[in-house]
Amino acid sequence: MTLAELRHALELLPDGASVTLPRADLLEALGTNGTTPPAPDPEPGGEWLTARDVADLLRTSVRWVYDHAVQLGGKRLSRRCLRFPRAAVRRYMERRR
Description:
Blueprint: H1 3-11, H2 23-30, E1 48-49, H3 51-58, H4 62-67, E2 75-78, E3 81-85, H5 86-96
Antiparallel strand pairs: 1-3, 2-3
């Protein structure tokens, strides 16, 4: 099943309908095959950092980074996966000084 086929099937359902889909089918449609989702395309001239990278740069805990993800410009790739544009983290560090 492709993502387009999945989208079409969902559009045919009435509002409020629930759907149960095997995990493998959903992952296949999304093209992830059970791997970590790919990082979003970087900003021009930018680079994406993990929560651990940001915690190391700021000399803080990963938990703190997750709690302040919005302020740091974090983009959620999945429930447990965040990426941060290096430029946004740099701007945060400059504001903090």
